[in-house]
C-alpha cells in the first residue's frame, strides 16, 4: 500500500517515521535533491532501497544524521579534517567518507561510510522523529535524473510507499563527497559545496584524477558511483563546446524532437530551448528540473552547451558529462 505524496506536516512526519521504524522506506526532501530514506543499518530496509532504485549493490549509500556528534558515532576515526569541515558546513551539502565504526554491520560493503547532516527542516525533523540514521540515495531509478520535486520522485519511483513533499529543492544538485580518510582529503564527487569553500577550511584538496593517497591506481576514481553513466535523461544528450557548432547542428536537426540546454541567450530558434542562468549556482539549481522538462517535451536529442571552465562549474560539468555518456 502506498500513501503517495503527503504534506510534510506533523501527521506526514509521524507516518514517515513509522514506516522507517518498520524497516520500510520513505522519500524526504533535502536541500540538494530528494532522498529515498531507509534505516541505514537494517539489511531489510536497505535492500528495499536497492530494489526500488535498481541500484547495483556495489554502490554504497550516504548515511544522513541529525548532528556531527551522531556522525562521529558511526565513525571508527573522526579526523581533524572531518571535525573542521563538519563544524563549518553542517548542516549542509557535504558528505564525508570516514572509516566505519567496527560495531556497525558492514553487510559486505566498504570499510568506510559516507555521512552527512542535511540542511532541510523536513529532513532534520524526520531524523529527529524517527531517531534513526537514514541511508538516502537520490530518489530516482539508478542512472536517471535526480529528483528536485516530489512529482519527479513519483514519476521515477511510482511504487515508493510515501513521499514527504517539501517543495522544490533549494540547491538542486547533490552534495559534494570528500574522503577524509586520506591526507590531504580527496574530492570523490563534485557537488553543491564548492571546492573553494572546502579548501578554505582544509587547505589542500586532492581531485579525483590526482595521484597520491586514496587514488585508485586502476581507475583514478575511488567513489564507486562515479565510474559510469548517470543523471541521464531519456533523450540522447550531446555536450557541445562551440556555440556556433551547436547552432549548426541545431539547424540540421528536426526541431520537433530537438532540445537545447544552454546558459547563452543566443539559442537556436524552433527547438525546445531551456535557457538556464549564467550563474553556476542558479544553473545547478535548475539543471535536473530542466532535463525533466525536456523529457516531458518528448525531445529525442538534447544539445547541451558546454558550461564554462573553472571550479565554479565543476559539478554542473560533471553531471552533464555523465548525462552524455553511453
Ligand atoms: O545530496 C546528496 O548527497 C543526496 C541527498 C539525498 O542527500 N544523496 C545522494 O546519494 O546523492 P547517492 O546515493 O545518489 O550518491 C552517493 C554517492 C555515490 O557516488 C556513492 O558512490 C558515494 O556517494 N559513496 C557513498 N558511500 C561511499 C563510500 N563509503 N566511499 C566512497 N563513496 C561513497
Ligand atoms: Mg544518485
UniProtKB/TrEMBL annotation:
<feature type="binding site">
    <location>
        <position position="138"/>
    </location>
    <ligand>
        <name>ATP</name>
    </ligand>
</feature>
<feature type="binding site">
    <location>
        <position position="112"/>
    </location>
    <ligand>
        <name>ATP</name>
    </ligand>
</feature>
<feature type="binding site">
    <location>
        <position position="55"/>
    </location>
    <ligand>
        <name>ATP</name>
    </ligand>
</feature>
<feature type="domain" description="YrdC-like">
    <location>
        <begin position="10"/>
        <end position="193"/>
    </location>
</feature>
<comment type="similarity">
    <text>Belongs to the SUA5 family.</text>
</comment>
<dbReference type="Pfam" id="PF03481">
    <property type="entry name" value="Sua5_C"/>
</dbReference>
<keyword id="KW-0547">Nucleotide-binding</keyword>
<dbReference type="InterPro" id="IPR010923">
    <property type="entry name" value="T(6)A37_SUA5"/>
</dbReference>
<feature type="binding site">
    <location>
        <position position="116"/>
    </location>
    <ligand>
        <name>L-threonine</name>
    </ligand>
</feature>
<feature type="binding site">
    <location>
        <position position="64"/>
    </location>
    <ligand>
        <name>L-threonine</name>
    </ligand>
</feature>
<keyword id="KW-0963">Cytoplasm</keyword>
<dbReference type="GO" id="GO:0005737">
    <property type="term" value="C:cytoplasm"/>
</dbReference>
<comment type="function">
    <text>Required for the formation of a threonylcarbamoyl group on adenosine at position 37 (t(6)A37) in tRNAs that read codons beginning with adenine.</text>
</comment>
<dbReference type="GO" id="GO:0005524">
    <property type="term" value="F:ATP binding"/>
</dbReference>
<protein>
    <recommendedName>
        <fullName>Threonylcarbamoyl-AMP synthase</fullName>
        <ecNumber>2.7.7.87</ecNumber>
    </recommendedName>
</protein>
<feature type="binding site">
    <location>
        <position position="59"/>
    </location>
    <ligand>
        <name>ATP</name>
    </ligand>
</feature>
<keyword id="KW-0808">Transferase</keyword>
<feature type="binding site">
    <location>
        <position position="136"/>
    </location>
    <ligand>
        <name>L-threonine</name>
    </ligand>
</feature>
<dbReference type="InterPro" id="IPR050156">
    <property type="entry name" value="TC-AMP_synthase_SUA5"/>
</dbReference>
<keyword id="KW-0067">ATP-binding</keyword>
<dbReference type="InterPro" id="IPR005145">
    <property type="entry name" value="Sua5_C"/>
</dbReference>
<dbReference type="GO" id="GO:0003725">
    <property type="term" value="F:double-stranded RNA binding"/>
</dbReference>
<dbReference type="Pfam" id="PF01300">
    <property type="entry name" value="Sua5_yciO_yrdC"/>
</dbReference>
<feature type="binding site">
    <location>
        <position position="146"/>
    </location>
    <ligand>
        <name>ATP</name>
    </ligand>
</feature>
<feature type="binding site">
    <location>
        <position position="175"/>
    </location>
    <ligand>
        <name>L-threonine</name>
    </ligand>
</feature>
<keyword id="KW-0548">Nucleotidyltransferase</keyword>
<feature type="binding site">
    <location>
        <position position="189"/>
    </location>
    <ligand>
        <name>ATP</name>
    </ligand>
</feature>
<dbReference type="InterPro" id="IPR017945">
    <property type="entry name" value="DHBP_synth_RibB-like_a/b_dom"/>
</dbReference>
<dbReference type="GO" id="GO:0000049">
    <property type="term" value="F:tRNA binding"/>
</dbReference>
<dbReference type="GO" id="GO:0061710">
    <property type="term" value="F:L-threonylcarbamoyladenylate synthase"/>
</dbReference>
<dbReference type="GO" id="GO:0008033">
    <property type="term" value="P:tRNA processing"/>
</dbReference>
<keyword id="KW-0819">tRNA processing</keyword>
<dbReference type="InterPro" id="IPR006070">
    <property type="entry name" value="Sua5-like_dom"/>
</dbReference>
<feature type="binding site">
    <location>
        <position position="32"/>
    </location>
    <ligand>
        <name>L-threonine</name>
    </ligand>
</feature>
<dbReference type="GO" id="GO:0006450">
    <property type="term" value="P:regulation of translational fidelity"/>
</dbReference>
<dbReference type="InterPro" id="IPR038385">
    <property type="entry name" value="Sua5/YwlC_C"/>
</dbReference>
<feature type="binding site">
    <location>
        <position position="231"/>
    </location>
    <ligand>
        <name>ATP</name>
    </ligand>
</feature>
